[in-house]
Amino acid sequence: MSYPISLTFYTTAGLADLRAQIFSKVNVSVGSAISIGFIEPGAGMYIWFGDAPDDLEGGVKIYSAAAPADILAVRDIAPVEIEYVRTIRAGVVGRSVANNSANPTSIVYYEPDNTTVEFTHTLTDTERTVA
Fold this sequence. Notes:
Elements: E1 2-10, E2 18-24, E3 38-42, E4 45-53, E5 58-64, E6 67-77, H1 79-90, E7 96-98, E8 106-110, E9 117-122, H2 125-128
Antiparallel strand pairs: 1-4, 2-5, 3-4, 5-6, 7-8, 8-9
């Protein structure tokens, strides 16, 4: 099983040789470089749509095939995120509750019965920031 991910980034306009490489948390490549899934909706603004393997903890890096050592963008991939997406896609989330509405440190997601805990997501300082 895999789950969908996307990554938006900005670089030189008109690049036709972009690649995405998924890697593990110890920076070992997972699979081959991916050359599909890139769109350029604006001059130099790109979005990559792809799939990450189930239960992968690591990330994806974007580069041009002409200069593979120059990383243009990177995005982390975490098991909690995968579980959240899997849960949402399966439609099995009941309610979710933050442990403190003013400055939450975690969010608990429940099964549809609203009593059984599906999983708990611990929030980082960045995730707690409310705009």
